[in-house]
Specification:
- The chain has 294 residues and is α/β, with parallel strands linked by helices.
- Helix content is 24%, strand content 32%.
- It has seven helices and 17 strands.
- Helix 5 links the parallel strand 7 and strand 8.
- Helix 3 crosses helix 4.
- The radius of gyration is 20 Å and the shape is globular.
- The relative contact order is 0.14.
């Protein structure tokens, strides 16, 4: 057991934002906190980080109280929607600030890990939005946190960059055996990234479980169809590295329109759905339910 949140309440201007929230985030897991705007999820993240105070309740790490501890002593870093980089510093200098010894060598190593090799001396304005977010992630990792908080860091990215960064962050958090708490309103994102998920509504916890468990038990989380065999209009294709061709999964980029996009993945069996959204969690494929789609 690592992060334990108990009975957190928070009121803003006579409005209850959090109503006695209990949450446990185990070590080395990616835990997603899912809810619509105004459900209190970002407020809870800020309380854990020390950027906001709770009216009542406790937050502990391995039994050590965090409330009252200054933010810089909590060994918690946060990745937000905006990169929040210093524009007068180079890419690498932004990362160097977080390293233990202000080390260029360490900063370059972290930039390599987030797939930005050789970019230490570049100016921030030379980077795309996705690259800036990767610099922010490198800086968060360089601080050697025990917990990393992800406050909807993929929101402002186009779909291709969003998917790429989701995979990068998930893979690095797992490789480095970190603990992460992701805030998102996107249930598909939670299914793709998280080991466990907590549903939050109106400042209250509705349910906690693995994505598979919530898919089975929670109507608010389960508006996906599990794909199997030829029950749905899907084409299966097997592509191997030896074939010399990339595997392509066609997904709908705009959920309110018909814009299509492609994601290039490595190897394996994937589903081609020209008119629906489909995505993979482990060995299972899911299709978002849509009315009137053939």
């Amino acid at each position: 057991m690592s992060l334990v949140v108990t009975g957190i309440q928070k009121n803003f201007k006579q409005r209850d934002v959090l109503n006695g929230v209990d949450l446990i985030v185990d070590k080395k897991e990616i835990h997603a906190l899912v809810g619509v705007s105004g459900s209190g999820k970002s407020t809870l993240l800020r309380i854990i980080a020390g950027l906001e105070t709770a009216d009542t309740g406790t937050v502990t790490w391995d039994g050590e109280p965090l409330l009252g501890t200054p933010p810089h002593k909590r060994r918690i870093t946060m990745l937000s929607q905006s990169p929040l980089l210093f524009p007068h510093l180079s890419v690498g200098e932004n990362v160097t600030l977080a390293t233990q010894n202000r080390s260029r060598e360490q900063a370059e190593a972290w930039l390599d890990r987030v797939r930005l090799p050789g970019r230490y001396d570049d100016d921030i304005h030379e980077l795309s939005g996705g690259e800036q977010q990767r610099v922010s992630f490198a800086r968060a990792l360089a601080a050697e946190p025990r917990l990393i908080l992800l406050d909807e860091p993929f929101t402002n990215l186009d779909p291709d960059l969003k998917y790429e960064l989701q995979r990068l962050i998930r893979d690095l958090v797992q490789q480095l055996e970190l603990t992460a708490l992701l805030v998102t309103h996107d249930r598909e994102e939670a299914m793709l990234v998280a080991d466990r998920v907590t549903l939050l509504e109106d400042g209250l916890v509705l349910a906690t479980g693995t994505p598979g468990e919530l898919y089975e038990t929670e109507p608010a989380f389960g508006d996906f169809i599990e794909l199997s065999g030829s029950s749905y209009p899907a084409t299966m294709m097997e592509v191997t590295e030896e074939a010399g061709e990339p595997v392509v999964l066609v997904r709908q980029l705009n959920r309110f329109g018909n814009q299509l996009g492609e994601y290039r993945l490595a190897t394996g069996t994937y589903i081609i759905l020209p008119r629906d959204e489909a995505f993979q969690v482990g060995e299972t494929y899911y299709l978002r339910k849509k009315k009137g789609v053939v």
